[in-house]
Design brief:
This protein is an alpha+beta fold and 346 residues long. It has helices at residues 25-35, 78-91, 133-143, 185-198, 250-261, 304-317, and strands at 6-15, 19-20, 23-24, 40-50, 57-58, 69-76, 94-104, 116-123, 127-128, 131-132, 148-153, 156-159, 162-163, 176-183, 203-208, 210-214, 217-218, 232-240, 244-245, 248-249, 267-271, 274-277, 283-284, 295-302, 323-329, 331-336, 339-343. The protein has a domain at 211-332: 2-Layer Sandwich (Alpha-Beta Plaits). This is DUF190 domain-containing protein.
Length: 346
């Protein structure tokens, strides 16, 4: 993956049963990415969400009829992503589409003076000695002092332009997995070569970020000076699934409070596989454990004004727990059939 320099990340949030021309939207998107040879794409299943219609989708009911949220991201050179944007919009009947810039961490990095998000894309069953590849990545990030690292397990996607989907009774070794870590530019530079050597030249991307809270302590509020051009922001809250606010899992309390307050137009919750935040050791699912300590990320994409309102709720519910990150999203399009808000022009 060392051939890439600048990249774009195209992400679509939608309900898993959303269809287009008689097919599931997720299949249509991933077939498109495979046909166009997109370097990396990954489909993540969420556990809870709500959108502009204020309908909550959650795994709490344990019902097979539940229509859970899905997030599909594609990463490649700007020319490749630009070529599929219009088709992605045409396929999406209802959903939220975002377009973000990222830098492939291959050559020399520019001087940076802000928090960064370093993302590693690798195979689900990829190994690094005795450890799973994602566990090795988290150990490297922790050793270099990163604020957090979260592994998200893909269920479908493309790797080097080839479709890779999870199947029953299969090792699913090539199905994409991503590890997103939050740290400083110096930490990113320091661990880059070790990640490349340990994980056999994975795709690494770097994005600008703002670390707002760590272990319940406010470091700074989301930046409201996003420049003259209208922009959206993405607020990401990282907690453990067994972390509680007044007896309720923090991520579930967040979804309920944000929905009831109408402070933002939506939120999506993704369950991680392995990771850490703050000074905690890397953790995940283990046998013979009554509770689940896997990392959970709650994602909100909205205007800076809405994110500012949302942060007050997030701050209250993460008192003493978790990590809160804010990023600028330069292009957002909300689609509800003929009703559209925003655009995907950078």
């Amino acid at each position: 993956m060392t051939g890439l320099t600048d990249t774009l990340k195209l992400t679509v949030h939608f309900a898993e049963r959303e269809r287009t021309d008689g097919r599931y939207l997720a299949d249509a998107l991933l077939d498109l990415y495979a046909d166009r040879g997109v370097a990396t794409s990954i489909m993540l299943r969420g556990i809870s969400s709500f959108g502009p219609r204020n309908i909550v989708r959650s795994d709490e009911s344990l019902s097979l009829s539940e229509d859970l949220p899905v997030v599909v991201s594609a990463v490649d050179a700007p020319g490749v992503i630009d070529a599929v944007v219009d088709e992605v919009v045409a396929l999406t009947g209802r959903g939220l589409i975002t377009l973000e810039r990222a830098r492939a961490v291959s050559g020399a990095l520019p001087d940076l003076d802000h928090t960064v998000k370093l993302t590693v894309y690798l195979g689900r069953q990829q190994r690094a000695g005795r450890l799973a590849g994602y566990q090795a990545a988290c150990e490297i990030f922790r050793r270099h002092g990163f604020a957090s690292a979260t592994t998200l397990l893909g269920v479908d996607g493309t790797v080097s332009g080839q479709r890779r989907r999870a199947r029953f009774f299969s090792r699913n070794g090539d199905v994409p997995t991503m590890v997103a870590a939050i740290g400083t530019p110096a930490q990113a530079v320091a661990c880059r070569d070790e990640l490349v050597e340990t994980l056999d030249d994975p795709l690494l991307t770097l994005e600008r970020a703002q670390l707002c809270k760590r272990d319940g302590r406010v470091l700074e509020r989301p930046d409201q000076t996003t420049g003259a051009m209208p922009a959206f922001q993405k607020l990401t809250v990282v907690t453990s699934e067994d972390s509680r606010y007044r007896g309720i899992a923090i991520h579930r309390a967040l979804v309920r409070r944000l929905r009831d307050s109408r402070a933002v137009s939506g939120a999506t919750v993704l369950r991680g596989l392995w990771g850490f935040h703050g000074d905690h050791v890397p953790h995940g699912d283990r046998m013979f454990r009554l509770g689940r300590s896997v990392p959970v990320t709650t994602i909100v994409v909205d205007t800076p004004e809405a994110i500012s309102r949302c942060f007050a709720i997030v701050d209250e519910l993460t008192d003493g727990h978790g990590l809160v990150l804010c990023e600028t999203v330069p292009a957002v399009l909300a689609v509800d059939h003929e009703n559209r808000r925003g655009d995907l022009h950078l």
